[in-house]
Fold this sequence. Notes:
The complex is a heterotrimer. Chain A is an alpha/beta fold. Chain A is built from ten helices and ten strands.
Amino acid sequence: xxxxxxxxxxxxxxxxxxxxxxxxxxxxxxxxxxxxxxxxxxxxxxxxxxxxxxxxxxxxxxxxxxxxxxxxxxxxxxxxxxxxxxxxxxxxxxxxxxxxxxxxxxxxxxxxxxxxxxxxxxxxxxxxxxxxxxxxxxxxxxxxxxxxxxxxxxxxxxxxxxxxxxxxxxxxxxxxxxxxxxxxxxxxxxxxxxxxxxxxxxxxxxxxxxxxxxxxxxxxxxxxxxxxxxxxxxxxxxxxxxxxxxxxxxxxxxxx
Amino acid sequence: xxxxxxxxxxxxxxxxxxxxxxxxxxxxxxxxxxxxxxxxxxxxxxxxxxxxxxxxxxxxxxxxxxxxxxxxxxxxxxxxxxxxxxxxxxxxxxxxxxxxxxxxxxxxxxxxxxxxxxxxxxxxxxxxxxxxxxxxxxxxxxxxxxxxxxxxxxxxxxxxxxxxxxxxxxxxxxxxxxxxxxxxxxxxxxxxxxxxxxxxxxxxxxxxxxxxxxxxxxxxxxxxxxxxxxxxxxxxxxxxxxxxxxxxxxxxxxxxxxxxxxxxxxxxxxxxxxxxxxxxxxxxxxxxxxxxxxxxxxxxxxxxxxxxxxxxxxxxxxxxxxxxxxxxxxxxxxxxxxxxxxxxxxxxxxxxxxxxxxxxxxxxxxxxxxxxxxxxxxxxxxxxxxxxxxxxxxxxxxxxxxxxxxxxxxxxx
Amino acid sequence: xxxxxxxxxxxxxxxxxxxxxxxxxxxxxxxxxxxxxxxxxxxxxxxxxxxxxxxxxxxxxxxxxxxxxxxxxxxxxxxxxxxxxxxxxxxxxxxxxxxxxxxxxxxxxxxxxxxxxxxxxxxxxxxxxxxxxxxxxxxxxxxxxxxxxxxxxxxxxxxxxxxxxxxxxxxxxxxxxxxxxxxxxxxxxxxxxxxxxxxxxxxxxxxxxxxxxxxxxxxxxxxxxxxxxxxxxxxxxxxxxxxxxxxxxxxxxxxxxxxxxxxxxxxxxxxxxxxxxxxxxxxxxxxxxxxxxxxxxxxxxxxxxxxxxxxxxxxxxxxxxxxxxxxxxxxxxxxxxxxxxxxxxxxxxxxxxxxxxxxxxxxxxxxxxxxxxxxxxxxxxxxxxxxxxxxxxxxxxxxxxxxxxxxxxxxxxxxxxxxxxxxxxxxxxxxxxxxxxxxxxxxxxxxxxxxxxxxxxx
Lengths: 256, 413, 458
């Protein structure tokens, strides 16, 4: 199976600093259309930091500074004319801990569509909400209680609600920062299944510290260590015959 | 055991140490009891003195309207002209005569200065009285009122006894307390004028301090860059919250009255002054409430493309609002009990009519308490305590509301 | 045109702008599903803000400069030629004429004021009409210009949000302005006072009787040392002697000994003491405590015991500040790591030994900070001393003797009938400045101590 290698996001020579600390050194990496890219590596290796540079969530951290170039469909996302708000609508994000708004399930999903003016009528908004919940595999579980609070759902359902919330804005890329680390194995399996289904529609980048998960869900894997991108490539190939010694040590469990 | 200290010596020491422990514990309990006892004693003093202020002694005054022949037409007591003719009809003289006729030469002194108003109001309610004799309930003079409640002078006690023999004296709920304003006659005063002044003042304070306080709290907590200016703002706010209230009064006097030329004694100026005092309290409470909103909510909103302003106004502010409201109510309760700054801007005038506008001369409930406490007439003592009870009740209600809001609406994360 | 009418008209224009912009933006709305940089609502708000902001700023500016313009125009009128050339009388006639014109009061104290009132009416009307015209033109012009800019590419949301940010910043600047206002007004009036009375006389003089001020030597009866002493004696000595033992021991009992249930009930009860209005304490002090203290004084043989003694005011003030001491001491004691307490108990110390030798010393900075805050509150407290302390300034160590304080004197000086510029009223501001600086210093030290202490255990 060979997919055309269309790059959605191209990162070139990216470095991230927190004050005087350099968290990421000179990382160049592409996120491809129609594929899942997994970032793996020991804790503190910079994989989450790199993920957050892709939709400029690092802007919210005081003293964070990004060097290098990140292009979304060829446009530099750190250019001065780039509207961060529009960028984040195109590059959605799902967080480590499910973080639904303390509002109804419906309002959680409708919020993004509302602020971006994606639906012009109540019916259109209903349709957006239903479609997003359906794609997130949650519709059948919640369709009768859309008015209930999003925080009343189970952890796995909350995380799928957060995915639905991201989908409702109709993004082109979805970033996932260890989306299953707070979930039990059954809920994790549901999310992984969902990632498979979403792959055809969105470019997906997922941070995980679980190598089995990376192997299960991704087509491309990037291994980070000490703020550097050590190696990246086809997932099957990286796990079976890594080129670098450090990658091999990590996936065989020497450290991490 | 090769201790150098003999066993009985050790046992003695241990007993002493346990005794010291018991004494210490007792001292702690005593401190708590004394502190709480202060509060109870204070409240008990106010309640025992103030409850009497809620009742009023009334005297049944027989008035022979037909014989007096007032220049009034029973059919025309309505409207503006009716009021004018009632005002000029000479009810004061009529009331005095009736009192002298009924209770002897000192009769008029038994009645409150405002007794004739009760007579007039009775006629206004029922014009048919003008054609006959009727018994009207009128407020007793302050001295009689005190004597009837059991702590008057011997002469007043004697008058009360003679009135009681004729069954002409009785005690009623003092409705005037909640409808009248200040007066020179202790028997006729009410807190309504002062309460209304306080309400108008608080409206101005809330209208200014709440929006400004909330917006400032949002700016400082969510957007302010860390630099010297922000530090200066923070230091200013923390210090303003601890500046003595009388200093705000001096500021109000110098700025609002002398520089801007706003009217003295007005709820507008009182409200402005108290707003400057309350704003830092709201900012500090607001910042704590905003800090309590977890960052993950902000991340979630940012990640679907909400702008920083949308994040704050759609998510952070609604979630922090219960906490902000709690802080606001507590700040407002403090402003409502505040006296000193209002004295500085002249809200201590004798105001006999409740204010209708923000620029009318007015007084406030705590200032009214202060003014009455200065009165020589003994009738004001119970009125002062009654006014204090009204003030404490309002404050208790406000704090109760704050606690309710905190328990009911605040989200625990 | 009256101010409310003008404001309503401006608001009306803004509403029209809002509706017009919304309609215009809705017409070019993007096809469903496509994101645009701004929604119709953003365009509408943008136009409404552009309509409001310049006009309201103009009105605000105008209200500060218009009184001067009006006065100039009145002075140019023929009736003003008869005004005395300068001085107090001229100012008082002008201000009376102004209030006649503002409030429509019938009778005039000064006949000239009555003749000037129509001139005020005319000038006020002239400038009001002018201002209303300019404000409406500004609102319409800038609103229309904004409306013309409404097109698909306009980043209306960003413009609106910049406006919101400016508003937020302005709100937080009010705090600085208030502080500056307090400082400036106190310093300016004090400056005028110190031109009449030498600073040295005021700060070191021991004789205070503002009722009799000798114009040749005003400083002779305006020496504030007895006030400073009275303030210190009542607020920092007597009140603290009541509040510190009671507050600290209550905090120790409630944190170390009391059952959680007791603590949950008793702590708020003690804190209610801080919520009782000070005028109630004042009344309580004057009516109940002061006579009792006097009787006590007489009973122990002090015939001169005053019914306005320092002791009565100080006792009640001490009651009031118990919660300030106890709640900060409570926090500080609770913040001492449990390990310290356990360590002491584990070597066989009793709880009281642990408290006095380990926990309280560890919590001491926090406790001291709380005491300083309580003292600062006590010396700035006004109503208790106004109602229960004496007006006579004395330098005495006898708690049964009358004593007065800075705050009591500020109230006495400013609630008399003196004109505003006399040494008497200006002295109140000099006292206010001293009080402000001392409480500021106490607060800064206290907050610094408490903060450093908190950081030590975090």
